[in-house]
Amino acid sequence: MSERQPTLTIALAGQPNVGKSTVFNLLTHQNQYVSNWPGKTCEQKTGICQREGICVSIVDLPGAYSLTANSEEERIARDFLIKCRPDAVIVVVDAASLERSLYLAAELVCLPVPVVVGLNMLDMAGYEGITIEPHVLQAAMGIPVVPMVASKGQGVRDLVAAAAVAARNPQSWTPNRPEVQAGHRQVLDAIETLISDLTPHPYPPDWVALKLLEGDEEITAMMRMQLGAAWEQVHAILAQHDDAFLAVAGGRYEWIGRMVRAAVVRPKPGQVTVTDRIDQAATHPVAGLIILLCALGLLFYLTYAIGAPVQAWLEIYVVQAGAEWARTLLSAWPAWLVGLLSSGVIMGVGTVLTLLPFLLIFFSVLGLLEDVGYMARAAFVMDRFMHRMGLHGKSFLPMFLGFGCNVPAMMGTRIIESPKARLTTILVTPLVPCTARMSVVAFLAPIFFGSRATAVTLGLLALTIVVIAGVGATMHRLFSGGEHTAFIMELPLYHIPSARRIAQGVWQRLVDFLQGAGTIILVVSVVMWALSTYPGGEIETSYLAFVGRWLAPMGRLMGLDWQMMVALLTSFVRKENTLPTLAVLYSGGSSGVNLVETLRSQLSPAAGLAFLAVQILFIPCVATVATIRQETRSWGWTAFSILFLFVLSMSAGIAIFQGAAVLGWGL
Amino acid sequence: MLQKMLDYIKSHGIASPAELARQLDASPELVEQMLEHLARSGYLRQVKACPSGGCSHGCQVNTGSCGYTRTLKH
User: Fold this and answer.
1) CATH number for the domain including A211?
2) Distances (CA, A) of B37 to A114, A246, A497, A657, B18
3) Among partner residues A254, A256, A488, which is closest to B55 by beta-carbon distance?
4) Which residues of B touch A383 (CB under 8 A)?
5) Closest chain A residue to the Cα of B3, Cα to Cα
6) Which terminal CB of chain A, N or C, has fewer other CB atoms within 10 Å?
7) Do both A326 and A428 map to the same domain?
8) What are the CA-CA distances from residue A643 to residues A306, A323, A465, A578 (Å)?
9) What residues in A contact B53, CB-CB < 8 Å?
10) Is residue A176 very low, low, confident or very high in pLDDT (cuts 50, 70, 90)?
11) Do A377 and A510 reside in the same domain of the chain?
12) Using one digit for the tens of pLDDT, what is the confidence trace for A201-221?
């Protein structure tokens, strides 16, 4: 590919869930660079688009519903558009939800940057019985409108061409802009006159006047500082028209209404669309829950049915064979080095690698559910349960993310406005079993329970849900005086899944996992091998044995030996460490020991169940704990979380084993 | 348009999205958008929740089972 310098900069804007990322990937392919927005934690993606003689730089703006600074994403988007002044903006809109998508466009056309509309998801609109005439919409808006189906790569070439033309001919850009409703236009003019000479560069005075009228806090603060004594006059006008927000936003909705009336034909009222038909079941209070349980059941069934045999094959033919091969090939090397490689490196990292089949299936099914649009329904169905914990449906989304990894789940709690609800969510989220925990359970459950592994795993999941509900409700009672904020959730239309999109997501997650496994796990495996070998060369006299024996009395209450207690403790560094630790501990420094057989002979089913319960409720990994500190900004809450989860998990393990002893089961 | 919506709700106490769509001659989807915007801005309060507690695609608009009332703001 030729290395041309882009001559134009085009910003890519759009609300969340309109297919903006797909459009960005199609435009830039592999020419993408990821960094953070200056001074922000928000990710900035830029890329070069080279198509048919056009070479432009594309800046992917964060998803934003409007240009009012309600969130960091919206602030970043508008700051970039105003301060960096790209040559053009592409705004991606969802054809099947035009009323929602066009609000951002209504704000963008008021900026002095040419705008091109990417009318995406036309296929989805068609499935919903919605007919849109792009050329009519273009005429009504007065700006280029390019019909697209980004998931199939349709319309991208026209979009780039239209954006390049708009960027090169800004003088010919004459959009039909929304107007402030009558009664406030003179007010707007008066404010603009007062501020026009004092507005700081590069802010357009007409836009600033509009934002002042709308009551935008950031712009108001900026102009109060800028105007000094002259602010009093502006403030007096604004104080007389404190309902002007209605005239400004109302004008935008009238504009949207005109556009939609001109170009969109919707199904007749009462006509049931595909999405409506599916949602009648998927969002039903009872049927929706059954569907959610089925989806989760299918997810875990596939994980075991396909993943377990592949995992067993890898365990025998890759990990154990590799360790044996290393011992044979390196027999002339010093014993400590052979032990380090075969029992530390190969057994440790190899065991983690055998988790890949599980992860591949897990991420694929989750990706499919996400791509189809079902995930939002899952959140919707769970909303009423969230409310019982004093949380909102919004809490479900980050907590659901926790099934993948608790770290992004913690960071996802930033979407919750109420500080108390957010703190409760942060403290409850570590109880959501992440992929790593589930991988360990997926490995161990079949060892202890054979064909009943799926049922046991679902039972453990049910246990975590019960514990989450109980803990959440208790914390809500302790923290909250019944505070609630309005919850509004967008349910996207169902999509036909894209294999490419799902594959990209799975690949990225697997790479992330392997990168982590390749560093932390390797180090921990080697350290664990060293701790289990030194100082005397015998595991029974090792440092690790000392720690394990110290914990043995507590372990005995759960039917666990000291090796299992040590494995539990090492999971604090990373959850997957449980398995390499067990592999190393039960191998006793020598390779060729079958972990599966060893565990089966060492632990009774009751002890196995207690261990799995403790594992699934135990203190999260160190990365999650660090994120708790970061998000709560409190060492106190972080320490509380660790102590609470330790006590909770041990109590659960002891209760299960002692309960089994009383019932005479699985001993 | 937003002002008309608020005035209607003020005069009727509580109004459903479907009712408002008819009164304003606007699409239910647009009315839903405006209601959400006004609720976020503190002008309205949702007083009759959908069975599942949220305001979402199709739910209250088609069934009219949700209602909004005006708050004390303005």
Assistant:
1) 1.10.287.1770
2) 27, 10, 31, 53, 16
3) A488
4) 52-54
5) A246
6) N
7) yes
8) 37, 38, 20, 20
9) 383-384, 387, 393, 487
10) very high
11) yes
12) 899 999 999 999 988 888 999
